Amino acid sequence: MANYIGLMSGTSLDGVDGVIINETGRKILTQAYLPYPDKLKQSLLDLTQNSKTSLANLTNIDIQVASCFADTVHLLLQQAGLEARNIRAIGSHGQSIFHQGGKYSMQIGHGALIAEQTSIITVADFRMQDVAAGGQGAPLTPIYHQHMLNGKDGVIINLGGIANITHSFNSDIIGFDTGPANTLLDNWIKKNKGLDYDLDGVWSRSGRVNQFLLNSMLADDYFHQEHPKSTGPEYFNLDWLSQHINDTEPPEDVQRTLIELTVMSISANIPLGADVYLCGGGVHNLFLFERLACQNPDSNVTFTNDLGVFVDYVEAAAFGFFAQRTLAGLPSSLASVTGAKSERVLGAIYQI
Q1: Are the C-beta atoms of 120 and 346 separated by less than 8 Å?
Q2: Of 2, 137, 290, 303, which shows the fewest CB atoms inside 10 Å?
Q3: In this predicted model, what pLDDT tens digit does every residue of 245-298 receive, in sequence order?
Q4: What is the pTM of this model?
């Protein structure tokens, strides 16, 4: 049986998630996480938040990111006791630095360098073919979420920097980005406390919901758009937040209200009584999980672990699955999700 590697780094910009999956796409043989060096993480944060850089700087960051992805491959192989010849292909999402649904999507960490540094065929740049076909280029994971459900009806929600949701009922799939999950929470605590994230939601729990602020944020046009739709930290960032707050609001109340923004914008899209499976970094925010479960009392809210794929590695596994489909000439995009004119085979293949 052929094995595939999937690599992913999300909008949290913390590092690279990697998995080795078998050809069924549902069994993870080994998994690894490689954090970005602090300097690279700060460079990526500056790049995505400010959107101003030189081509020379962008090139340097691109090479560093690709090397981190390649290092993750070596770590996975070492852990599994495998060699490059035991892997059919790598599916690498890369690091998103810009996404404007329907117009353009840019991921760095170029596949050619990963292929050269690992001696494994690498499939990368998965989003732009869908965008070229008139699609949002995101989210791509719903077809993998349906594969994970394996015939079951249900809802899968990825709590990354941005939250995305997949509905799979009677073999019909829809999926879209609901809005921010961790990106505003992480940026706000970084600004006020110098921490990368709110461990277990402790700081959020200490504040009170500011209903006026919550209503102001929920009034944003994005939350009222019909799908297909996608977004990113280019839109939901501290500049966006500053349009809704003033200097008199206690920062812990803002953090508490941002939790509620995530909960309300997601819950508005959960069908009554649906089985809900959560994944992504946000599942480790205990308070966020509690609020989602409380807001959806008629649903069984649990984790993708129950479907056989650990919460932190669903997206990495998805891109290993996509690499398999790409080499087989099968589409990975869904027109019902992205709004493209039709399904597309995704990704550029870098041969060895």
Answers
A1: no
A2: 2
A3: 988 899 999 999 999 999 999 999 999 999 999 999 999 999 999 999 999 999
A4: 0.94
Q: Write down the residue that tokens 């980005």 correspond to.
A: 177
Looking at residue 26, what is its pLDDT? 93
Nearest to 165 by CA among 92, 237, 262, 97: 262
Q: What is the pLDDT of residue 13?
A: 85
Neighbours of 64 (CB within 10 A): 19
Instruction: Please report where in the chains the tokens 């001696």 appear, as a residue.
Output: 119
Q: 69: part of which helix (H) or strand (E)? A: helix 55-80
Q: Parallel, antiparallel, or unpaired: how do β-strands 3-9 and 15-22 relate?
A: antiparallel
Cis preceding-peptide flag for 35 (omega within 30 of 0): no
Q: Rounded to an integer, what distance in angstroms lies between the CA atom of residue 346 and that of residue 309?
A: 23
DSSP bridge pairs for 35: 15
98 DSSP β-pair partners: 106
Give Cα separations from 319 to 21, 203, 222 (angstroms).
10, 34, 27
Domains of the chain as residue ranges with CATH: 3-137+313-350 (3.30.420.40), 142-307 (3.30.420.40)
Q: Could you say which residues of the chain have pLDDT below 50? A: none
Give CB contacts under 8 A, 24+ apart, made by 310-314: 310/28, 310/31, 311/278, 311/279, 311/280, 311/283, 312/17, 312/31, 312/33, 312/279, 312/280, 312/281, 313/17, 313/19, 313/28, 313/31, 314/141, 314/144, 314/145, 314/148, 314/156, 314/158, 314/279, 314/280
Q: What share of the chain is helix, strand, coil (3-state, %, to 5)?
A: 45, 25, 35
- Is residue 24 classed as helix, strand or coil in its secondary structure? coil
Note the pLDDT of residue 50.
75
Q: Rg of the chain's alpha carbons, rounded to an integer?
A: 19
Which H or E run contains 239? helix 238-242
